[in-house]
């Protein structure tokens, strides 16, 4: 089985950070979004990965090859962003007829991946949501079989959202439906959607079962990314990343601090993740994510997302600063 992870999106909802950093590599609870996904699948026994890359794809490839040299990885280029269906259609030559596990590159879920892989049927991850109009939606019959899927319906007939995890046994049928939709310009919301290809498979008799996920974390916007960071910091407890003593500094857990950081005269936490080699002095930081190689001096930050190589001096309450930025608030 191969794992397919589409990470070609531009991450427009997380700009300015995604101008210089792929969304999948944004730090989260001492890791990255992508590493959390890959580690879950490696723990479940998957060793072959296909990454669909595009915008800043060379950073994805460099990161994966450096962090996971033991894995067999393929990188497929998506030059034009035409939706998840189009992205997956590009992997046909690499995947062939192998079974596949598709996990969208901004999707972090908690589920039993080993049981999912062992299932004799194709499976779609589902989660009940209050407003399903912003998601792909699945409709089930009385026996729990999926009878229909539709992308972002205006009048949903179900509150079961597709969470972005798909186990596909019938790969050939999927690629045939993807190709047919592209040739016939079958689009939803102006893009070729994976959801439409799955609906094509259902109409041709392929059986899909749903599986529930215990947690589904949204990493697509600043506010929900910070919420996810706080939840995962508490969950991981960072047993493998102990917080070292810093000069005249109070650490309020949960906090993740990267290697090579220099922190003095500050209060850090709770719910803070700091990248490697960052310098913080005379500052208060809480409920925030700080990138690597940044420099903070005399600032008060809360609910902030700070990119790498940023320099901030002065006083602030809430910032959304991209990479390679210099700000003097004094």
TrEMBL record:
Q: Does the keyword rRNA processing apply?
A: no
Q: Which domain of life is it from?
A: Bacteria
In the UniProt record, does the keyword Cell division occur? no
Q: What CDD domains does UniProt report for this protein, alphabetically? A: NTP_transferase (cd04181)
User: Which keywords fit this entry according to its UniProt record?
Assistant: Transferase
Specify the Nucleotidyl transferase domain's residue ranges. 2-233
GO MF terms listed in the record are: transferase activity
| Name of the protein in its database record | Glucose-1-phosphate thymidylyltransferase
